[in-house]
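Quick one, tokens below. Sequence please?
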């Protein structure tokens, strides 16, 4: 086992292979505060990639209702329980939040799924994991819209359960795709070495000719985004719509384009990019890349279950109405700071949030031009000032993709008819 750096954990960890990083890494940010579970992303992916025989259970993109939902059923509860058993002395974080890109969330003190693999699984296992049963793949929308109410009382909700800062009656939607991890568990576990990360963009793919369907990748992936296809006896997974990333899709017109699930998002919760990496796997300074800004400058976007150790490249802006202990378990110690900054955004963050889903093309850089003051007042006891700034998005070759303003224009239709719509 090699020792590799993991900036999300703030330390080195063990991994079956030596560290190797692409020049740019496929990554994305999802703003959970906006997700309405319309499933447009789910069906866009399904109708593009997994509509054939043997793929009926495959939902490479899905939206599940937390805390009860999950696909496969209870995937996160099960791997968290295994990780807890493998860490009898407990898991936790030490240190504090910082601007150091090598340990922005402090230091994770427990064992990862790579460091605890032989504690609970056979000696042949390289990664701590489990293989879901067939029944657990049956219900992609299990417990959809099921809220948490008063503890110990079924079907009884708090009368004031909707009040901020934390709702007492709550649920939220978690949109998921493959995280194309920096240290993929599926890759680590494959005995055939059929799984690889592309050196140009870090997208994780399965070589269909090399795969023999041992399902070690399904067992190892803590997010359960590698899936076994019974009629071909090989595994499949999200391919990050790589023809679109390369600009070879007919829709792309030669420009790097966001994935199908990203482009279909009605709620405008998604932003995808290709971030620059240093030789040690940390993100290279790229101040005006919107993903770099959201993760390392504004610090409102956090990795999903960083304690697993895979260094996922999917980041989430946490939902601001959910109990903080639940969110810290899911997104790590940066939750309180992320929600505080999202609830009280500065001028630049307000502008960058307007970039979500304004174009199907990948944004490589943004520029903000200051506009006039349009509002000043008090919100929840805080002074709020809003400016109608313009934010401009640029593509791979420096071409302008679009520009938009903080204030969306209002169009009043003339009432030509009494019931005019």
């Amino acid at each position: 086992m090699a020792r590799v750096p993991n900036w999300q954990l703030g330390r080195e960890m063990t991994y079956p292979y030596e560290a190797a990083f692409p020049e740019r890494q496929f990554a994305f940010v999802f703003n959970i505060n906006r997700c309405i579970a319309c499933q447009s992303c789910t069906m866009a992916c399904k109708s593009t990639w997994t509509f054939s025989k043997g793929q009926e259970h495959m939902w490479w993109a899905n939206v599940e209702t937390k805390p009860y939902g999950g696909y496969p059923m209870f995937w996160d509860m099960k791997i968290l329980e295994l990780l807890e058993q493998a860490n009898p002395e407990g898991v936790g974080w030490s240190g504090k939040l910082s601007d150091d890109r090598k340990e922005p969330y402090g230091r994770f003190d427990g064992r990862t799924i790579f460091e605890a693999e032989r504690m609970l699984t056979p000696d042949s296992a390289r990664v701590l994991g489990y293989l879901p049963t067939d029944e657990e793949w049956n219900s992609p929308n299990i417990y959809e819209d099921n809220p948490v109410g008063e503890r110990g009382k079924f079907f009884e909700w708090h009368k004031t359960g909707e009040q901020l800062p934390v709702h007492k009656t709550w649920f939220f939607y978690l949109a998921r795709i493959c995280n194309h991890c920096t240290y993929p568990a599926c890759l680590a576990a494959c005995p055939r070495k059929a799984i690889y990360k592309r050196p140009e963009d870090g997208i994780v793919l399965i070589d269909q000719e090399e795969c023999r369907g041992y399902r070690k990748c399904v067992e190892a992936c803590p997010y359960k985004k590698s899936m076994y296809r019974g009629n071909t006896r090989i595994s499949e997974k999200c391919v990050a719509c790589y023809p679109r990333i390369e600009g070879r899709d007919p829709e792309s017109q030669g420009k790097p384009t966001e994935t199908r699930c990203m482009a279909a998002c009605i709620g405008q919760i998604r932003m995808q990019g290709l971030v620059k990496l240093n030789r040690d796997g940390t993100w290279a300074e790229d101040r005006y890349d919107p993903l770099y800004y959201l993760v390392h400058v504004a610090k409102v976007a956090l990795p999903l279950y960083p304690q697993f150790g895979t260094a996922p490249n999917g980041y989430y802006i946490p939902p601001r109405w959910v109990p903080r202990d639940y969110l810290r378990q899911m997104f790590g110690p940066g939750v309180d700071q992320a929600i505080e900054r999202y609830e009280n955004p500065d001028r630049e963050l307000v502008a960058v949030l307007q970039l979500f889903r304004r174009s199907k093309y990948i944004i490589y850089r943004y520029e903000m031009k200051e506009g006039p003051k349009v509002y000043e007042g008090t919100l929840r006891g805080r002074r709020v000032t809003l400016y109608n700034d313009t934010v401009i998005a640029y593509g791979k070759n420096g071409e302008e993709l679009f520009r938009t303003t903080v204030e969306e224009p209002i169009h009043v239709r003339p009432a030509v008819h009494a019931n005019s719509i």
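The longest helix spans residues 75-85. The chain has a mean pLDDT of 93.
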